[in-house]
Specification:
The chain contains 13 helices and 8 strands. With about 290 residues, it is an alpha/beta fold. The protein has 2 domains: about 10-165, NAD(P)-binding Rossmann-like Domain (Rossmann fold); about 200-290, N-(1-d-carboxylethyl)-l-norvaline Dehydrogenase, domain 2 (Orthogonal Bundle). Helix 7 (about 145-155) links the parallel strand 7 (about 135-140) and strand 8. The structure holds NADPH dihydro-nicotinamide-adenine-dinucleotide phosphate.
């Protein structure tokens, strides 16, 4: 542990892969860090690096002005914190456990009733990225908490604050993950398409990664059309041109599921059937906004 003149007395609840990475970054920066985990034995490496280990969550809360919760889910956060509401009163809680926007708002309301300053966080990184380039953490809830602890939060990754509505960080988090999972499914669909001709997924990945990276350059153009609300603007690929029938047919010929591509085709088709076939591809957002 290095010396830090601005050391914060901080407690980390939850030493899974992520909680341990967060605590480690705090220790490296010289913050006086107390850690607690439901199952004993997970703190050993952190203790060797200077952490204090608390026997109970209550002991951990009492030893810090700032409490970080990095548990499994919303239910586990309540399970651990509900009995400690009185001890948490007057302290600050930053919860980086993944929760839905509604759950984040519920926890913020619970904290407000208990007199706890509350900031909600959504981590856009995997544990080994914490404190390294590419890691970012999204926050919403108390602006005072965010600004007071911003230098500490920056230890984990680039921090962005979205506003007082505690659900916003989670909403952004899940919206970004939605894009990621659909992209991953698209990549894996492509890998499944070429597999029957003996192409390995690894070989396919070497082609898919630069291709998809280049295609992210189209996001801004789509976004400008969506924000402008006029899908008839020129130089866009039309919905009729974007028909995915040939990809569906080729996928079926390869003997694989067509579900991934069929999902996109349905979004396109609804707009074509509604008479918008000459309009741009970005118009499929209207299919998404208005469930069929
Ligand atoms: P792990 O599964 O590695 O750890 C889960 C932690 O939660 C453990 O400390 C576990 O304790 C604790 N826990 C689970 N249930 C309870 C309970 N009922 N009471 C007390 N403690 C409980 O998960 P991660 O550390 O990877 O993830 C933690 C949070 O961070 C999650 O919300 C996750 O979504 C989020 N996150 C994780 C990322 C990742 O890549 N790992 C990325 C972004 C966000 P015990 O050891 O006793 O089981």
């Amino acid at each position: 542990m290095t010396t830090n003149n601005n050391s914060v007395q901080v407690s980390v609840l939850g030493l899974g892969a992520m909680g341990s990475a967060l605590a480690d970054a705090l220790l490296k920066a010289g913050h006086a860090t107390t850690v607690w985990n439901r199952t004993p034995g997970k703190a050993d490496a952190l203790v060797a690096r200077g952490a204090q280990v608390a026997a109970t969550a209550g002991d951990a809360v009492r030893s810090g002005r700032l409490v970080i919760a990095c548990l499994l889910d919303h239910a586990s956060v309540h399970e651990v914190l509900d009995p400690l509401a009185d001890e948490l009163a007057g302290r600050t809680l930053i919860n980086v456990t993944t929760t839905s926007p509604a759950e984040s708002r519920e926890l913020a309301a619970w904290a407000a009733r208990a007199g706890i300053a509350y900031l909600d966080g959504g981590i856009m990184a995997v544990p080994h990225m914490i404190g390294r380039p590419g890691s970012s953490v999204l926050y919403s809830g108390s602006a005072d908490v965010f600004h007071q602890y911003e230098p500490l939060l920056e230890l984990w990754g680039a921090s962005t604050y979205f506003g007082e509505d505690a659900g916003l960080a989670s909403l952004y988090d899940l919206a970004l993950l939605a894009g990621m999972y659909v992209m991953f499914a698209g990549f894996l669909h492509g890998a499944a398409m070429v597999a029957p001709v003996g192409v390995t997924a690894s070989e396919f990945a070497t082609r898919a990664a630069p291709w998809l990276t280049a295609m992210t350059g189209a996001f801004q153009g789509f976004a400008e059309v969506v924000d402008g609300g006029d899908y008839t603007v020129e130089r866009q690929q039309s919905l009729l041109f974007s028909d995915l029938g040939h990809i569906l047919a080729a996928s079926a010929d390869q003997g694989i599921s067509t579900e991934v591509v069929a999902m996109v085709q349905r979004l396109i088709r609804r707009q074509i059937d509604a008479g918008h076939g000459e309009e741009g591809f970005a118009r499929i957002i209207e299919s998404i906004k208005q469930p069929g």
